[in-house]
Amino acid sequence: MKILNYVLITLFLLFNFPDIAYGKPAGGFVVYDGNRYMLSDEYVTEVERNIGKVTMYSDDESHDYYGDFSNFYPEGTNYYSIKGISTDEAIAVEDNGKYRKATWDGKSFGPRYHPFTIPFLLMVGLAVFMWAVCPKKKKKQ
User: Fold this and answer.
1) Domain at 25-115: CATH code
2) What is the pLDDT of residues 61-78, one digit of tens each?
3) For residue 35, what are the CA distances in angstroms to 50, 116, 128, 132, 133?
4) What's the pTM value of the predicted model, to 2 decimals?
5) How many CB atoms lie within 10 A of CB 16?
């Protein structure tokens, strides 16, 4: 049982205190499908379809964010594909009834999912595995 405790403590420390620094760009941006798009001053008129929305907003520079994030638009702001332009190049962001162009600027600099989701699932899985595999001590009568 001591081994299980050491393994769980080690996993907790490894996954909950990573030494990761993500670069933060200056200016407004949105993250869609793991890609970062910088907001431009250009607006487009022809959009094709809704492709997603802002799921998390924060303008706090020290904030760890994940998912389809923005430091400019509130949660619920819609993203659209632009007619004739691949989403690898640019997307449109709904802005007061207009569609503001956001150009691709590279891969996202933050995790795609909440940072505790995968480590938590790994720890639960390991705990269940250890419980199932480790021999149980019989009580003395």
Assistant:
1) 2.170.150
2) 555 666 788 989 999 999
3) 16, 21, 35, 40, 41
4) 0.60
5) 12
* Domain spans, the chain: 25-115
- Cα 15 vs. chain centroid, distance in angstroms? 16
Residue ranges of the chain whose pLDDT lies below 70: 1, 8, 10-26, 60-66, 109-118, 135-141
pLDDT for the residue numbered 78 = 97
Burial tier of 115 (Cβ tally within 10 Å: 0-12, 13-18, 19+): middle
- What is the SS3 assignment for the chain? CHHHHHHHHHHHHHHHCCCCCCCCCCCCEEEECCEEEEEEEEEECCEEEEEEECCEECCCCCCCCCCCEECCCCCCCEEEEECCCCCCCEEEEEECCEEEEEEEEEECCCCCCCCCHHHHHHHHHHHHHHHHHCCCCCCCC
